[in-house]
Amino acid sequence: MRLFTGVFPPADVVADLADALRAARAAHPDLRWSAPDRWHITLRFHGDDAEPAGLLDALRGLPAPRVALTSSGTFPGVLWMGVRGPLRPLAEATGATGDWRPHLTVARARRRGDRLPHVDFDGREWTVTEVALVRSCPSTGYEVLDRVPLTTPNG
Predict the structure, then answer these.
(1) What pLDDT is attached to residue 112?
(2) How is 7-20 classified by DSSP, letter by letter?
């Protein structure tokens, strides 16, 4: 079972980012662009053999951070959007290591040497109100197995 814990941005943030990526998508049809309904920030990839029981326990009661998506960056063959805001405590609660970097993957190169664009973006802030435990299956997509609410100032 391929599992990860992650944060899904709200619909208005997804819509803003989709608009901001429209020109880059048109200029780079050779890239494999991720579907907006799959956009997420991975806090930790748990792997193929992880058991789901207890993976969200350390997140219970943690404060809900305010975050925003920012301009793009790249890893080899990956175009991602940056994330501004204090997500590290959530990632560490899931067991993420020191090399974790918050990002939202938007496209992947099909071939080595494919040029990845730069996308300027300054997204709206939102409050991360929950973290999801997700099963990823290449043939069927994502299945949310569990969610844990985060503590917001109003409740």
Answers:
(1) 87
(2) EPPPHHHHHHHHHH
CB-count exposure of residue 30 (10 Å: 0-12, 13-18, 19+): exposed
Q: Which H/E stretch holds residue 27?
A: helix 11-27
Cα-based distances in Å from 106 to 20, 31, 63, 110, 128: 12, 10, 27, 13, 19
Q: Domains in the chain, start-ordered, CATH in brackets?
A: 3-149 (3.90.1140.10)
For 63, which DSSP code? Answer: B
Distance CA 34, CA 45 (A): 18
Distant-in-sequence, close-in-space partners of 98: CB < 8 Å, separation ≥ 6? none
User: pTM for this structure?
Assistant: 0.93
Amino acid letter at 44? R
Quickly list H helices, 28-123: 88-93
Q: Decide which of 128 and 113 is more confident.
A: 128
